[in-house]
């Protein structure tokens, strides 16, 4: 199933992602697609809020990975911009137990072959200075979410 939303500000993007975050559970993998500045980290801030996490979410650009929360459920935020499939092992990607983790992966197209079949694909496109078109390819959990 594919869902489309338009947000008019970073605050609306966070609010939408918060609604989505409330419906996530350990084992979910969100693979982000979108250009630089499209709102991937902003979206992840909303996911964290929806999961009830109070951590400050920042871009993992230089660290490659940030972990928020902890068992029984943690949000693991990856930046795969500089990673290719054969370098994935060095990122710690396989070190996080899926039964305790939700993955949010920026620049997921760099590791697409390594992602599980149940991956939720989130595409963010800038359509104005603060306006974003957000598309989620997922399951029926998200059918009744409005922007």
Strand content: 25-35%
What string, H for helix and E for strand, traces the elements in order?
A: EHEHEEEEE
Structural class from helices and strands?
Answer: alpha/beta
Assembly state (oligomeric) = single chain
Spans of at least 5 consecutive residues with low confidence: none
Write the layout of secondary structure elements.
Blueprint: E1 2-7, H1 10-21, E2 29-33, H2 40-50, E3 65-70, E4 73-79, E5 101-106, E6 120-126, E7 132-137
Parallel strand pairs: 2-5, 2-6, 4-5
Antiparallel strand pairs: 1-7, 3-4, 6-7
Helix pairs in contact: 1-2
Task: Describe the structure concisely for a colleague.
With 147 residues, the protein is of the alpha/beta class. Helices cover 16% and strands 29% of the residues. The protein has a domain at 25-91 and 102-134: P-loop containing nucleotide triphosphate hydrolases (Rossmann fold).
Structure overview:
- The chain is an alpha/beta fold and 147 residues long.
- It has a domain at 25-91 and 102-134: 3-Layer(aba) Sandwich (Rossmann fold), CATH 3.40.50.300.
- It is 16% helix and 29% strand.
- It is built from 2 helices and 7 strands.
- It has helices spanning 10-21, 40-50, and strands spanning 2-7, 29-33, 65-70, 73-79, 101-106, 120-126, 132-137.
- Strands 1-7-6-2-5-4-3 form a 7-stranded mixed beta sheet, covered by helices on one side.
- α1 packs across α2 (40-50).
- The mean pLDDT is 90.
């Amino acid at each position: 199933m594919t869902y489309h939303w338009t947000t008019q500000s970073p605050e609306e993007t966070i609010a939408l992602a918060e609604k989505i975050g409330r419906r996530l559970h350990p084992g979910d993998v969100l693979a982000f697609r979108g250009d630089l500045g499209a709102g991937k980290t902003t979206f992840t801030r909303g996911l964290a809020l929806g999961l009830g996490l109070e951590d400050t979410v920042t871009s993992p650009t230089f660290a490659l990975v940030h972990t928020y929360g902890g068992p029984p459920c943690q949000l693991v935020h990856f930046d795969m911009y500089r990673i290719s499939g054969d370098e994935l092992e060095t990122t710690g990607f396989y070190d996080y137990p899926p039964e305790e983790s939700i993955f949010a992966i920026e620049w997921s197209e760099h590791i697409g072959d390594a992602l599980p079949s149940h991956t939720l694909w989130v595409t963010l496109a800038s359509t104005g200075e603060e306006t974003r078109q957000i598309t989620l390819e997922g399951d029926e959990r998200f059918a009744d979410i409005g922007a």
